[in-house]
From TrEMBL:
Lipid bilayer topology: Multi-pass membrane protein
Gene Ontology MF terms in the entry: chromate transmembrane transporter activity
The entry's keywords: Cell membrane, Membrane, Transmembrane, Transmembrane helix
Organism of origin: Anaerobranca californiensis DSM 14826
Pfam families given in the database record: Chromate_transp
Compartment annotation: Cell membrane
Primary site of residence: membrane
Family: Belongs to the chromate ion transporter (CHR) (TC 2.A.51) family.
Residue intervals passing through the bilayer: 6-25, 71-98, 110-127, 133-150, 157-172
InterPro entries (alphabetical): CHR_Transporter, Chromate_transpt
Lineage: Bacteria, Bacillati, Bacillota, Clostridia, Eubacteriales
PANTHER family reported for this sequence: CHROMATE TRANSPORT PROTEIN-RELATED, CHROMATE TRANSPORTER
Stated name of the protein: Chromate transporter
Amino acid sequence: MLLLKIFLSFFKIGLISFGGGYAMIPLIQKEIIGVQGWLTVNEFLDIIAIAEMTPGPIAINSATYIGYKTAGVIGSVVATLGVVTPSFIAMVILAYIINKTKHLPQIKGALKGIVSGVIALIGYATFKMAIGVDILSIYNFLICLGAFLLFHFTKKHPVLLLIGFGIIGIFIF
């Protein structure tokens, strides 16, 4: 019964959450602390901090950790499945619809518009990050340009470039 409650709680969170992992945090908090009473506020804050530090989406990381804290390894699997299942179902349905209608001019136009919008969002995020690291300083600009050129022309793995430029940064800064 506990595993079903965990799955349904996280399924509901995944179903009604829009805007990504950070938008899910208040919903997770309300459900896990307020409705279910599985954690205290301090335990929840610790879980959010851990979920933030580990690789991967914060909503999935926190669901996995909360599931583990509540019902062990199987609880972590059940909570993770619960939070990702609504998105998985939505993506399967959308993929099916797009695949069946991709020949229609309206769908082609919509997809081109979405791609353009995504490129704009990525560009905006890049711009905001560039301002945050003072890209106009000569060293930051040269490192950024060097990383871009190396990645573009050598196709080296991004992790290798990050390590290399991190080492360069130690000596420059």
